[in-house]
Amino acid sequence: MPFTLTPSYDDNPRLQDLVDRLRDYLDGELAAYEAEAGLVPESTYTRAVLEPVWRRSRELGFYGVHLPPEHGGLGLTHTELAALKEEVGASGRILQHSVLGDMGGPLRAGSIIEYATGHQLEKYLLPVVRGERACCFSLTETDAGSDVRAMTTVAVPDGDGWRLTGHKVFSSAGPFADFSVLIARMAGGATEESDAEPVFSAFLVDLDAPGCTVLPGQTPMSGEHIEADIVLDNCRVGPGQLLGSVGDGLRIGLGRVTTNRLLHCPTVLGLARRALDLTLDFARTRQVFGAPLGALQSVQHKLADMATAYYAARSMTYDALAALDAGAKPRTEAFMCKLFVAENAFRIADEAVQIHGKAGLVRGAEVEWIFRRLRMFRVLTGSSEIQKNGIARNLLMPTPPSSSPLVPAAPSRNPLSPAPPL
């Protein structure tokens, strides 16, 4: 894999065509749309702003492109999808998350299609694929992040359905979603006084249903208004809203963790690539003491370190993705990629700000926003410490227990035992 800031895929004509068309859309039509709408990274998005992007991306073949042909996609490999996600991340577009459907779209809903009934496909998921509806995912609670089993949102039986009560936080895309894929603990499971294992299920919850309230979520340091709290107060869901079977909640909520962990990395690599590209341009054009900033050896060394870190992070990510496409289960490698990409992408962004000097410190500077965004990735989707726990555990236990790899084992009562990976 050669080092380049403009990757080409001559050995894969289909992918090269997709990348070329995607770049044209990102740099042309979408850039013009954002400028006309006056969007900045901290704008509050409305459905009126987002839906045209969803539909246009669908018309161009990008929205849901990873899905199988029967759902309107091309059935991309993980490596092909990663290449598109990297291009989106490197584009500098504000609405980059809406092009492939990361934020409330097919990339959010795609992994749960296999669990859906025909009715659920028609009512909930296929409209998302067509850009007509949006969804969010609600798992996290204030005191249930890495320790998802600590969630208190409960589903109490009510006739042939259930009534949900609880408070979910950090539901990305919640402010403009129509429904949530929501995980709840089934009433009658474990309690503090009981050794019974808790049982969790997944529900498709209409966000305009009685007893369901969507509140503005906390604003992350990126400044994006994309989070919501989902508050449930005796909200009824019918049997047709149970996704999968009772007890499938963590399998659905945490399913495909290795794949998802790896597929977060290309977007981050794209952001790091954008930061490096912007910094190279600044170093070439910024004049200091009568010469370009890039003539200073100290700056050259920083640029060399940034490029080397990007190349290493990208190479290991695509190596793991190739193994995944070949049928392997690169669990340890996925932990390693998430750790290495997160830490090194942030270092790239940090050096980008340093080289830009005061110009990189002001709000509105693109490298400043990338810095904030990449700082978050060291925590989101599993912190760096969680990744290290997973790596070390796999090194120390080459043959893991026979329990399902998709559902973390119940935590040991020994307080010194490591927490389950996420």
UniProtKB/TrEMBL annotation:
Residues 397-422 are annotated as: Disordered. Transmembrane segments: none annotated. Keywords: FAD, Flavoprotein, Oxidoreductase. Its cofactor is FAD. Residues 247-396 form the Acyl-CoA dehydrogenase/oxidase C-terminal domain. InterPro entries: Acyl-CoA_dehydrogenase, Acyl-CoA_Oxase/DH_mid-dom, Acyl-CoA_Oxase/DH_mid-dom_sf, AcylCo_DH-like_C, AcylCo_DH/oxidase_C, AcylCoA_DH/ox_N, AcylCoA_DH/ox_N_sf, AcylCoA_DH/oxidase_NM_dom_sf. The keyword Flavoprotein applies. Residues 136-234 form the Acyl-CoA oxidase/dehydrogenase middle domain. It comes from the Bacteria. Residues 15-132 form the Acyl-CoA dehydrogenase/oxidase N-terminal domain. Belongs to the acyl-CoA dehydrogenase family. This is Acyl-CoA dehydrogenase family protein. It comes from Streptomyces kunmingensis.
